[in-house]
Amino acid sequence: SVFLGPAHLFRLAGKCFSFVESTYKYEFCPFHNVTQHEQTFRWNAYSGILGIWHEWEIDNNTFVGMWMREGDSCETKSRQTKVHLVCGKSNKLAYVSEPSTCVYSLTFETPLVCHPHSLLVYPTLTEALQRKWDEAEQLLYDELITDQGYKKILKEVFEEAGLLKATEEKEVEKHSKKISLEFETVEKCSKEYRQLSEEIKKLKVLLSQHDIAYKANSGE
């Protein structure tokens, strides 16, 4: 999945951290997945996926956790895991529990979240989305929208930024919009092309900085 969130956490991508409890070994690979391996000699020892990187949990302008969803099936649903990010001296998986059937909770310690501003959402947004958030703040202050309306706008901002997954209906709507995307003038098309080219350059630089291999698209 595409990495979205605080840029400094990108250095965790491509790494995995394990934790052994009783006969189980848990492995957390940030922005990838969470797995569980039963370390016994039983013929049907369980080994599977507890969740795949899906979205952030956001509360009060702060990234409070990572949701790993759509894991292996468990009765009538899929396994899922919430990973709590807490300040620690080193990167390590510190604690694992199963608060409810097939829903797991992991605590991941890292010095990358020790700074009080390290998990703020606002700085990770584009200028356009920051403006949208600022406008919502003003509307709330002027009592032109309710607290519920404010939260709805913020949810839309986070979905647009890719930090939260939109509902299936919204995804279909977005997809149909993309298909019918047309430009009224050549100038508008050229402007969009330039912006996308700049975005690709930035992404290439970011990938190169972190030594992450990527396949270039010949038609880019």
Key traits:
single chain, 220 residues, alpha+beta, Cation-dependent Mannose-6-phosphate Receptor, Chain A, 3 domains, eight-stranded mixed beta sheet, two-stranded antiparallel ribbon, 4 helices, 10 strands, signal, Man6P_isomerase_rcpt-bd_dom_sf, disulfide bond, OS9-like_dom, golgi apparatus
Residue share in β-strands: 25-35%
How many structural domains are formed by the residues? 3
Following the backbone from N to C, one meets helices and strands in this order, namely: EEEEEEEEEEHHHH
Radius of gyration: 20 Å
| Oligomeric assembly | single chain
CATH topology (level 3) name of the largest domain: Cation-dependent Mannose-6-phosphate Receptor, Chain A
CATH top level assignment of the largest domain: Mainly Beta
Low-pLDDT runs of 5+ residues are: none
Structure description:
This protein has 220 residues and is α+β, with helices and mostly antiparallel strands. It folds into 3 domains: 7-110, Cation-dependent Mannose-6-phosphate Receptor, Chain A (Distorted Sandwich); 125-179, no CATH class; 184-219. Helix content is 30%, strand content 30%. It is built from 4 helices and 10 strands. α1 (127-141) packs antiparallel against α2.
